[in-house]
């Protein structure tokens, strides 16, 4: 997880909180959180990078729409990250 950007970690959290979201659903959620609008040109290369790192999987919902889901590796890494954050942040 330490080699990921903050944006990529945010994407993992969004994907973890949804059931196989499409790229557009991820984009809508991340744009609610980030001040500057995220473009497709920023989103999809980062999603592809997470696929390459085997943290998420990409599949087809239909011929035009892909979904994204955490892999077991992605879930483990996100859980370890959250445990680390919880040691330092008591909200």
Automatic annotation (TrEMBL):
Domain Transcription regulator PadR N-terminal: 12-80
SUPFAM superfamilies: Winged helix' DNA-binding domain (SSF46785)
InterPro entries attached to this UniProt entry: Tscrpt_reg_PadR_N (IPR005149), WH-like_DNA-bd_sf (IPR036388), WH_DNA-bd_sf (IPR036390)
A Pfam short name: PadR
Protein name: PadR family transcriptional regulator
Record organism: Natronococcus jeotgali DSM 18795
